[in-house]
Hints:
By secondary structure, this protein is α+β, with helices and mostly antiparallel strands. Helix content is 37%, strand content 12%. The protein has helices spanning 9-23, 57-61, 68-75, 79-86, 95-104, 106-111, 116-123, 138-146, and strands at residues 25-29, 35-39, 42-47, 155-160.
Amino acid sequence: xxxxxxxxxxxxxxxxxxxxxxxxxxxxxxxxxxxxxxxxxxxxxxxxxxxxxxxxxxxxxxxxxxxxxxxxxxxxxxxxxxxxxxxxxxxxxxxxxxxxxxxxxxxxxxxxxxxxxxxxxxxxxxxxxxxxxxxxxxxxxxxxxxxxxxxxxxxxxxxxxxxxxxxxxxxxxxxxxxxxxxxxxxxx
Length: 188
């Protein structure tokens, strides 16, 4: 991770433009001399205090790590009541069907997280979540970083899933899986 400190709005805008130019696309040359370009989504997250960890609400509120299966099972405990009060229906597999969907292929489970729209609904209503909100707009991130009138340094994180054209990781370490933006959720 690289840290860039800026003190003015003009410098912030210049850094965002530089970052976007650098990482929004990666061009590769094939052995035959042909080139291809991989487009990247550049994502931003603003936080009012730079000393805060980049952590989900679930990580901040629970000392115990959760498996995806355990988290979804806990989240399902309120589903029937929420459907009754909101009039919405969320198709979320339960029991053996949930276990089958999660165990088929863990990376597929992240790509097609069972009950994702329900989990998004819970997240936007304050339920501790493993989901972390990001935006494609650096200006929305800046709003969240700067809207509180404090003397603390704020932070705006930039994330590119495939900065070199491919994605890697270490087994057993935390991972980021980009979802959206086309997800049905509450209008907030």
